[in-house]
Write a structure and sequence with these properties.
With 437 residues, this protein is of the alpha+beta class. The chain folds into three domains: 161 residues, no CATH class; 205 residues, L,D-transpeptidase catalytic domain-like, CATH 2.40.440.10; 62 residues, no CATH class. Helix content is 38%, strand content 18%. It is built from 14 helices and 16 strands. The strands form three sheets. Strands 2-3-4-13-11-10-5-14 form an eight-stranded mixed β-barrel. Strand 15 and strand 16 form a beta hairpin. Helix 1 crosses helix 3 and helix 4 packs antiparallel against helix 5. The longest helix has 22 residues. It is elongated. The two termini are 30 Å apart. GO terms for molecular function: carboxypeptidase activity; transferase activity. Belongs to the YkuD family. Pathway: Cell wall biogenesis; peptidoglycan biosynthesis. This is L,D-transpeptidase family protein. It comes from Sphingomonas lutea.
């Protein structure tokens, strides 16, 4: 730890400052014999046994700002999905009141109570997002052990600013939650809307800083971020019902010029039916090729070696790809990223789709309104193919994290509203069951 000792002056200033707050700001007293901090208490006690009794919360000077910040965060915690937050806040207040006795046992109990409360809160806001595929493990929640949380707090130059930064999660998250919290305080209805909690769960894995991409199926928009702030956005086409675009956290390392398009199984059947009516000229005019397998080096299968009737009826499945050309469904650019679901972003020749309000039209992958503009942002230069060959891969200057999510909650002009829940994920029991725990 930092080596900062618990001081009597700090105890008095912290406890007195917090306990002098208006009664309206205080949470109700905890029930006798009941503690809401049991989940974190054992790991916190072990931390202090290992690292000694140097203080985090009573470490010299007036730390009442940090203590007040902690209590405020806990009182708001139901809007982070931690329903027991107000009760934990009351327990912190009670422990600080006892610490006014300046008895060593009471002082250490208050120190550990605040640490247990903070650990419990941070672990709550860093839970993995239900349904999110963390294709790159490092993009999942990090620093969730009690010792990691407390050592980071102990090393913070300003503890109250550290609490504020961590509890903000990211700008998207903070805007939604803080708007909902302000509305709740104004109305007196302190029960968070389950739809809000579902939305917050879906965006809490998004980072607060750096360069990254957010693909939002709920708003049908993609936003590019630099230094944690939005710098550009565009319309997108996303998965229709039954082919919903999944939630994925990954990293994009390269782009593809002149991509092939691999037809999905349900369209392969239609292609087979058209082949039976029009023959080879149908496939040739559209640049379709039958492939032996799904490998990158797959051989092309002659059309007369395919049982087209079996394919058309769905009894056999084959791979059909379309060569790069004007009507290729991939357009000129493809933007892959690591995942096992074969989901990627791509250009499209069908620009008319972006004039629609409802753009739930794809089979799961994401079509971009302006693929060249996106490529320019990724590369830092105009995206020009280095040749006419198919599937030319070009590395990005550095990998760019990408987050596919789904939001229906919006905060505008200090008010919260909800978009139509096209996927029904706001009502999904698995997500709502996790919210509020």
């Amino acid at each position: 730890m930092t080596g900062r000792k618990i001081t009597i002056a700090a105890i008095g200033a912290t406890a007195a400052g917090l306990l002098s707050m208006p009664a309206s700001a205080q949470a109700p007293a905890p029930a006798a014999g009941q503690s809401s901090m049991l989940p974190a208490a054992a790991s916190v006690a072990s931390f202090y046994a290992t690292h000694g009794k140097q203080g985090i919360w009573f470490r010299g000077g007036d730390q009442s700002a940090a203590a007040a910040q902690l209590v405020s965060i806990l009182e708001r915690a139901p809007f982070d999905g931690l329903a027991t937050g107000p009760q934990v806040a009351a327990e912190v207040r009670a422990a600080l009141s006892r610490a006014m006795s300046r008895q060593p046992a009471d002082v250490m109990a208050a120190e550990q109570a605040m640490s247990a409360a903070w650990v419990q809160y941070v672990q709550a806001i860093k839970r993995p997002t239900p349904g999110m595929v963390y294709a790159i493990p490092v993009l999942g929640p990090q620093g969730t052990r009690a010792d990691q949380i407390l050592l980071t707090a102990a090393a913070a130059p300003s503890l109250d600013r550290h609490l504020a930064t961590v509890s903000s999660v990211n700008p998207m998250y903070a805007q939604l939650r803080d708007t909902a919290w302000a509305q709740a305080q104004a109305s007196g209805n302190m029960t968070p809307d389950p739809r809000l909690l579902a939305n917050l769960e879906r965006i809490r894995s998004i980072p607060s800083t750096g360069k990254f991409i957010v693909v939002d199926s709920g708003t049908q928009l993609m936003t590019m971020f630099e230094n944690g702030r939005p710098v550009d956005s565009m319309k997108i086409v996303v998965g229709k019902t039954g082919y919903e675009t999944p939630m994925i956290a990954s990293i994009m390392y390269y782009i593809v010029y002149n991509p092939y398009w691999n037809a999905p199984d349900h369209l392969v059947r239609k292609i087979a039916q058209n082949y039976l009516s029009m023959g080879d000229k149908y496939l040739k005019s559209r640049g379709y090729q039958v492939m032996k397998d799904w490998t990158a080096a797959s051989a092309v299968v002659p059309n007369d070696q395919v049982n087209w009737k079996a394919v058309a009826s769905g009894k056999e499945q084959i791979r059909i790809r379309q060569k790069p050309q004007d009507d290729n469904s991939m357009g000129d650019l493809k933007f892959p990223f690591v995942n096992d679901l074969d989901i990627f972003l791509h250009d499209t020749p069908h620009k008319e789709y972006f004039g629609r309000a409802n753009r739930y039209l794809s089979n799961g992958c994401v079509r971009l309104e302006d693929a060249r503009r996106f490529g320019r942002w990724l590369l830092g230069t105009e995206p020009k193919p280095p040749g006419d060959d198919a599937e030319i891969q070009v590395q990005l200057p550095r990998g760019v994290p990408i987050y596919l999510t789904y939001t229906t909650a919006q905060a505008r002009d200090g008010k919260l509203s909800y978009l139509p829940d096209a996927y029904g994920w706001d009502r999904r029991p698995a997500q709502l069951a996790n919210a509020g725990k």
